[in-house]
């Protein structure tokens, strides 16, 4: 604030007034948020326009001592903390869906702005939360819900608000990227790479939410909603994980010039009637080696945005972890706190476009199909005709000797998922085809 | 806006009220801004909360017909257009400094929010402009001033507001990146690569502002100011361009595993007394091939940000051109217009940290020094002792036969610019050294 700052805006508390924070949750992210709220406090006072003060921290066991936190700040009664008159901004970093939903709704309805890092909550209940925030005239921020410190939420909400986004594709789950990257660089099997990721702390004891793509699907729903100004929820997202990817798939992709990445893809589609729809999906994807997403290694995240006027943009960084997530949470805390002091609100979520979510069967993409076939003259003609009958042409065909007959790898031109489904069923019905080993989409 | 949106904030015009735009300038960017304001108009109405209407376009010759623009919108009297009561937001895309400064100040003082793409203006006069915006309680947006469509200004202003930034390094000038990339990939001389850039429209007829680094220096000043919450102006930025870079420099860098990039580097420094200062500089820099900035090719821009909690982030995209710049301008127009409807202001520039700009001589970096030396036994000992006497140790030494004696390339460990200056002067005074061909800093 400069000394010339002499106006307040609307319903702000006014320059110099303190902003009270309720912190819900004290896990890895919560502890970092608390620590940095102290460490950067003098800066936050300047950036917000008034001191930012933690009123209390809701935990499940308030009797447990926590280093660096005064015991009187701890409480097990999150609801009472939220309702305190001197609380202005509620930070939710508990995780889960039902309990945080209840708390976040209570906070919004009590006129508190909310900052949450909870992707599952936002992806499942965004409409309800946005409505509550809107009715109360308060802010709902969730930068940390997608790709932690990479500020893609703010970018879509604000910076790209003057453009028309066509496509968002991103590596938004660090665990699966770590596993796929390890498989590619070491030749390891999925099981071995997962074990290594678990050992190093990149994968949780129960890795299902990560490896089956559920975590990425929540993020895809949020990205699609913001990017296309419409509502896409977790249930709208077609989701396939990486647990079926084999070392052979990685190797075949590499030979063809691709890396396999688990991508969250959000597309704006225009039908033959000119009507727009959207799709959002998560699945393993062949990305050409020369594409910027292919070189995103280890547990890093990156989001690639294609907009009409801006062209292609990419944002890269740490997509998980206590510190990067806390950075995103605190950026939101500063924004929400500033609005409490000066008045004004962040741009609310705006789903005016109200676009239908296209049936997944209508999604068009290209496919990399790996088959075990009989090693006899004429087999290629038989297989090709299956594709030709469905009007799908082949881009590349590679045949090599396998242990049991021949291995045939084809890459198709674009086809819809439903057509492809029919082709795979037809292939599996052929005497000449022992097995369809894998079908992986191209980006 | 959803139907539940039932509050306005403070001094907003109110939901559904139109926002009047004055467009100053109709060059490449201005024409795109005008076109897209029409094309996206229905979307903007929804995103802003009221219709966005162009009241007039200030041009130097209003009698000239412009395709797609009603003649009655054109005016040569920018001041009268700005002062119109039905103008809320002024978009300045004229370029230059003095005349736009006069117009932007007039607009702010008249209570209009301003969106500008003018890096030179912001880098030279940010304090004066921020003060005028603050006193009038209006917004001053300039996302397009740095790296066009890459939303780095918004990111520093908002998303990273909860973090402490340590370093920003970026490729923020497309012309010079195109030239250096062409030199690296084709082996061309600087002159030939510049000629090619000019032919393809990447370089202007007078390329001085780009190739001498002035354009990048303006952007460095803006990035440092936002990132460190202090004021850094164009004059504070140490600036060296690329016109002295030779094909031999590029080749030597490549052999050592580096690409040469023109970087804008902004650093937070902590002195031995614990006091902080900042520096901002633009110069050709050796970037290790494995660093994400090394692979930024053609005229693309990328900004690499290192923050305490977030870690490393990179933002990549089109850093110039009518469309990408218009995208950034329009994102700002939506933001400023939304605030006019709903009340509230964007976070103003906040230079509270008030950090001194460190003397350039105190900058610490590593150096790649390319010399022509006598080809005689003992020359390396003589040269090494010059470095040793100044307490600078050598990281790598490479000697090869040259046409006139030997060529010696050393890479030093970190040293200050003033120490390095002394070393270079001492080397140039040695009988054994024919010439110091080049001194290039490492990133």
UniProtKB/TrEMBL annotation, chains A, B:
<dbReference type="GO" id="GO:0050661">
    <property type="term" value="F:NADP binding"/>
</dbReference>
<keyword id="KW-0521">NADP</keyword>
<dbReference type="InterPro" id="IPR016204">
    <property type="entry name" value="HDH"/>
</dbReference>
<comment type="pathway">
    <text>Amino-acid biosynthesis; L-threonine biosynthesis; L-threonine from L-aspartate: step 3/5.</text>
</comment>
<feature type="active site" description="Proton donor">
    <location>
        <position position="219"/>
    </location>
</feature>
<dbReference type="InterPro" id="IPR036291">
    <property type="entry name" value="NAD(P)-bd_dom_sf"/>
</dbReference>
<protein>
    <recommendedName>
        <fullName>Homoserine dehydrogenase</fullName>
        <ecNumber>1.1.1.3</ecNumber>
    </recommendedName>
</protein>
<dbReference type="InterPro" id="IPR019811">
    <property type="entry name" value="HDH_CS"/>
</dbReference>
<dbReference type="GO" id="GO:0009088">
    <property type="term" value="P:threonine biosynthetic process"/>
</dbReference>
<feature type="domain" description="ACT">
    <location>
        <begin position="368"/>
        <end position="441"/>
    </location>
</feature>
<keyword id="KW-0791">Threonine biosynthesis</keyword>
<feature type="binding site">
    <location>
        <position position="119"/>
    </location>
    <ligand>
        <name>NADPH</name>
    </ligand>
</feature>
<dbReference type="InterPro" id="IPR001342">
    <property type="entry name" value="HDH_cat"/>
</dbReference>
<keyword id="KW-0028">Amino-acid biosynthesis</keyword>
<feature type="binding site">
    <location>
        <begin position="24"/>
        <end position="31"/>
    </location>
    <ligand>
        <name>NADP(+)</name>
    </ligand>
</feature>
<feature type="binding site">
    <location>
        <position position="204"/>
    </location>
    <ligand>
        <name>L-homoserine</name>
    </ligand>
</feature>
<dbReference type="Pfam" id="PF00742">
    <property type="entry name" value="Homoserine_dh"/>
</dbReference>
<dbReference type="InterPro" id="IPR045865">
    <property type="entry name" value="ACT-like_dom_sf"/>
</dbReference>
<keyword id="KW-0560">Oxidoreductase</keyword>
<dbReference type="Pfam" id="PF01842">
    <property type="entry name" value="ACT"/>
</dbReference>
<keyword id="KW-0915">Sodium</keyword>
<dbReference type="InterPro" id="IPR005106">
    <property type="entry name" value="Asp/hSer_DH_NAD-bd"/>
</dbReference>
<comment type="function">
    <text>Catalyzes the conversion of L-aspartate-beta-semialdehyde (L-Asa) to L-homoserine (L-Hse), the third step in the biosynthesis of threonine and methionine from aspartate.</text>
</comment>
<dbReference type="InterPro" id="IPR002912">
    <property type="entry name" value="ACT_dom"/>
</dbReference>
<comment type="similarity">
    <text>Belongs to the homoserine dehydrogenase family.</text>
</comment>
<comment type="pathway">
    <text>Amino-acid biosynthesis; L-methionine biosynthesis via de novo pathway; L-homoserine from L-aspartate: step 3/3.</text>
</comment>
<dbReference type="GO" id="GO:0004412">
    <property type="term" value="F:homoserine dehydrogenase activity"/>
</dbReference>
<keyword id="KW-0486">Methionine biosynthesis</keyword>
<dbReference type="GO" id="GO:0009086">
    <property type="term" value="P:methionine biosynthetic process"/>
</dbReference>
<dbReference type="Pfam" id="PF03447">
    <property type="entry name" value="NAD_binding_3"/>
</dbReference>
